[in-house]
Design goal:
With about 170 residues, the chain is an alpha/beta fold. It is built from 5 helices and 6 strands, in the order αααβββαβαββ.
Length: about 170
């Protein structure tokens, strides 16, 4: 059985330390910016093999959770029933020891930008009231480009308060 040389071990440990020292919010943003490329790649399977199609919020959350596990050792979940969900529970991903709550939403026909904004506002109010996380990160996946002004939506909904920072990212743009 071969062993790892001391210099190789040091290189591995320093690369692990580098990942641990990175800003968790930047890591989440990186995953979300690359999400569409990953979703597209999954559709390009050989021999027409079955794959995951990101058709709704549940597919989005499943793939996003898997991708976040590449960057974070622990990705937990929190379920709650928001007022806009018509009694259906929603799952939020929790990373960085539950300091960052990640809400994922996918655009679809019939869901307006105003309704998305109202959902983010409701999510923000819930997590501010809970006091469990310092940041709520809302990822809005818009593969068909349904949001007319994604940067405007991001800047309108992104905010910082005494108890909770709200960050909104629409991708792809």
């Amino acid at each position: 059985m071969s062993s790892i040389s001391p210099s190789h071990r040091q290189l591995i440990e320093s690369s692990l330390d580098f990942t641990l020292d990175q800003d968790p919010l930047k890591l989440i943003k990186k995953v979300c910016y690359r999400f569409h490329a990953v979703a597209r790649q999954l559709r390009l399977r050989r021999d027409y093999r079955p794959t995951l199609e990101v058709e709704d919020d549940h597919d989005l959350q499943d793939l996003l959770c898997a991708l976040l596990k590449v960057e974070f050792e622990e990705v937990a979940t929190d379920e709650w029933t928001p007022p806009y969900a018509e009694g259906a529970p929603r799952t939020t991903l929790l990373v960085n020891r539950d300091q960052i709550a990640v809400v994922a939403k996918k655009t679809r026909p019939g869901l307006t930008t105003k309704e998305l904004a109202d959902q983010v506002t409701a999510d923000s109010a819930y997590y501010r009231a809970q006091g469990r996380c310092s940041t709520l990160f809302c990822f809005i996946y818009d593969p068909e480009g349904r949001i007319g002004s994604p940067k405007r939506l991001e800047s309108t909904l992104t905010s910082v308060s005494e108890h909770c920072r709200i960050v909104v990212l629409v991708a792809p743009k």
